[in-house]
Amino acid sequence: MQPVHELHRNQSLHSHALFFDPVLRKVDWSQVDAELNKVPYIEEKPGVTVLANGDVVFYFLAPNAESVQVAHMGGPRCDLRPCGDGYWTVTLSGIPAGFHYHHYYVNGIMVTNPLSPYGYGSFQPINYYEIPDSENDFYLLQPVPHGSIRMELYESSVTGRTRNCWVYTPPGYDQQLEHTYPVLYLQHGGGENETGWLWQGKIHYILDNLIAAGQCEEMVVVMNSGYAFLDEEMSQFLPGNFDAVLMEDCIPFIENRFRVKTDRLHRAMAGLSMGAFQTLLTTFKHIEDFAWIGLFSGSLACKSSSEYDHRKLFEHPEAFNDAVKLLFLGMGEQEHGYDPIVREHRELTDRGIRSVLYTCPGGHDWHVWRRSVHAFLQRVFRT
User: Fold this and answer.
1) Using an 8 Å Cβ cutoff, are 21 and 39 in contact?
2) Which residues pair with residue 61 across a beta bridge?
3) Of 19, 45, 73, 374, which residue is most buried, by most CB within 10 angstroms?
């Protein structure tokens, strides 16, 4: 086998819901010697390996299978072949750099691969892997001071349930006890959950690296599930009343538990796709509470089912510019929403409304959203 792509050795590309540093070992129970206290381990094959030439090698352990296949999201199935010891393998070429969700099929039935990284996406536990992009290493694990990730529980008066959120605190948070921080509420997209910005988005590594380089402010980041269903609710694209969960339950909890600044100039919200729509509707409805807004793969034309019309704020450009310190619009250049967001940005400019348009190559995927948040973080809370 050819050598592994050097960037693919970085642990951030392998840390996920099952592993931080994958333990590709298993016990050979046939060789266990209880009297000598010997427990021999044998090496497992990694589910996905990216080679130095860009080829991708897939392995799947299925000793009794009749067929094993792998398929990228929206792509054809490719057959794996048996290679001994119950493993199946295939090597694929020509896959572009970036983030790739993919499925496995054993005897025609879709399954997941425990030897490949996991996340929650497309409403399911799903495997992913990455082909390193040598020009963008900002989301990799680097030798810099690291912040902390904390899972917090709070009660929701809206859903009647206990909810959890993930909170990033910057390096030094637990030592600099007199220091208070601005706070960013960061939302995932449809079919994902509150873990998306961690496992897939690598937001903690992005923040660590930017803070270490002095390219963004130290901040607390809060990641919530955007789903706030009531038990009987099934039909809304924006599920439940997340606006009320955030404003009435989560923000008071965070401001009571963490050393965050509580004025609007130090409170931001951003999100991707569905989270961008939620960000737009919440921040515009509560413009007195948010001064910094980030919309990744979103639109300014989405409609609210509530009584207010968010677009009325655009009728008063001077007041909007005074209230909103940053309206950031991020979009992949191969997304369906690319032309509309360029047009909406131009219309805002013609009206005299300040906004920042950031675009980069890519589709509706984490490759774009990481780049978007990376650009947004360098602007938020900075004048």
Assistant:
1) no
2) 87
3) 374
Q: Which of 57, 33, 35, 34 is nearest to 46 (CA)?
A: 57
> How much is the pLDDT for 38?
81
- CATH class label, 148-377: alpha beta
For residue 47, give the DSSP letter: S
Beta strands in the chain (DSSP E): 25-27, 41-43, 48-50, 56-61, 68-72, 77-79, 81-84, 87-92, 98-106, 109-111, 118-121, 124-131, 148-155, 162-169, 183-187, 220-224, 267-272, 292-296, 326-332, 356-360
The structure tokens 């000793």 sit at 63
Q: Where are the domains of the chain?
A: 6-131, 148-377
Please name which of 195, 192, 188, 199 lies closest in space to residue 165, comparing C-alpha atoms: 195
Distances (CA, A) of 283 to 64, 244, 308, 309, 313: 54, 12, 12, 12, 11
Give domain 6-131's CATH superfamily: Immunoglobulins (2.60.40.10)
pLDDT in tens, 212-246: 999 999 999 999 999 987 766 665 666 788 999 99
pLDDT for position 67: 98
- The CA distances from residue 94 to 26, 50, 97, 101, 333, in Å, are 32, 12, 9, 16, 21
Mean pLDDT, rounded, for 200-216: 98
What's the CA angle centered on 299, arms 293 and 303, to 5 degrees? Answer: 100
pLDDT of 367 over the 90 cut? yes
- For residue 135, the 8-state DSSP code is T
Q: What is the pLDDT of residue 34?
A: 72
- Residue 60 pLDDT greater than 70, yes or no: yes
What does the alpha-carbon distance between residue 78 and residue 180 come to, in Å, rounded to a whole number? 52
Cite the DSSP H helix spans in the chain.
196-199, 203-212, 242-244, 251-257, 274-285, 317-323, 338-351, 366-377
- Tokens read off for 339: 């032309």
Question: What is the spatial distance between Cα 177 and Cα 128, in angstroms, rounded to a whole number?
Answer: 39
| Rounded Cα gap, residues 118 and 114, in angstroms | 8
